[in-house]
Q: What sequence folds into this?
């Protein structure tokens, strides 16, 4: 019985010893080994490792690409125009030993120091460029220069590599924004007024041209109508003349009947004529003699 207990205790001790002596570093981790607080191995590769219990300590860090979100800062362009810039940077641990010595393995310390370096780099780059260049013209070149400049210093001082630096937003100060907004509003109002004036001018020209064409068309139509009417009247007169010349007495009688019809249309009308007037010629004699 005592032998079994002894074996069990020995086995448990071996398990505890193995648990405190063996450790694993994954593919996305980086680590260092300390012996009594002194750095003895500055870059533990992924895999299974051994350490001395109690004497050695292991610090594991995230080896993936991390993001530092810098606080918005105020920068001046070469034109002395102040801008509020919000940026971020992508970084990862490159030299684990240097990283541990510089930051003690505390990620927040590395984040703060890198954010300060990013802001200093942006300040230097903005100070040599105009507002147009930093906003649109040379944005990619500016980011590339900042990334290269940071990697020349932070790798040696912090043991990290800057993968990329990006500007999320560029704003004008509130007092400048109001002035720019008012100026833009005035420019757009002026442009709108000019467009309206141009539109009214073109509308007047089109309207005048349409009125002129309408007048010309009406005049031409009236001319053609009068010509047709004249031709019709001439043809009618010619027909009447030809018909009248065939039997003058008959058409004289017909005209007299029409005259009587018109003269005696209303019963209340009064006509004063001499009895011997030519008007009553066909009333006296049917042959008009």
A:
């Amino acid at each position: 019985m005592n032998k079994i207990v002894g074996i069990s205790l020995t086995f448990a001790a071996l398990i505890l010893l193995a648990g405190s002596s063996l450790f694993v570093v994954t593919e996305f981790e980086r680590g260092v080994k300390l012996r009594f607080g002194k750095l003895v191995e500055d870059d533990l590769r992924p895999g299974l490792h051994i350490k001395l219990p109690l004497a050695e300590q292991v610090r594991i860090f995230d080896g993936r690409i991390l993001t530092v979100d810098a606080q918005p800062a105020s920068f001046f362009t070469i034109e002395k125009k102040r801008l509020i810039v919000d940026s971020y940077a992508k970084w990862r641990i490159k030299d684990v030993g240097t990283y541990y010595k510089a930051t003690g393995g505390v990620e927040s310390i590395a984040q703060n120091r890198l954010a300060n370096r990013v802001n200093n780099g942006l300040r230097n780059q903005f100070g040599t460029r105009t507002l147009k260049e930093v906003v649109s013209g040379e944005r990619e070149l500016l980011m590339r220069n900042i990334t290269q400049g940071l990697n020349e210093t932070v790798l040696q001082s912090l043991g990290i590599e800057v993968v990329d630096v990006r500007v999320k937003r560029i704003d004008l100060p509130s007092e400048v924004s109001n002035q720019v907004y008012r100026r833009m509003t005035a420019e757009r109002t002026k442009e709108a007024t000019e467009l309206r004036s141009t539109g009214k001018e073109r509308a007047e020209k089109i309207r005048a041209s349409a009125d002129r064409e309408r007048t010309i068309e009406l005049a031409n139509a009236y001319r053609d109508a009068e010509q047709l009417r004249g031709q019709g009247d001439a043809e009618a007169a010619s027909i009447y003349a030809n018909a009248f010349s065939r039997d003058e007495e008959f058409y004289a009688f017909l005209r007299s009947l029409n005259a009587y019809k018109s003269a005696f249309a209303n019963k209340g009308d009064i006509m004063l004529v001499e009895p011997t007037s030519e008007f009553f010629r066909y009333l006296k004699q049917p042959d008009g003699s």
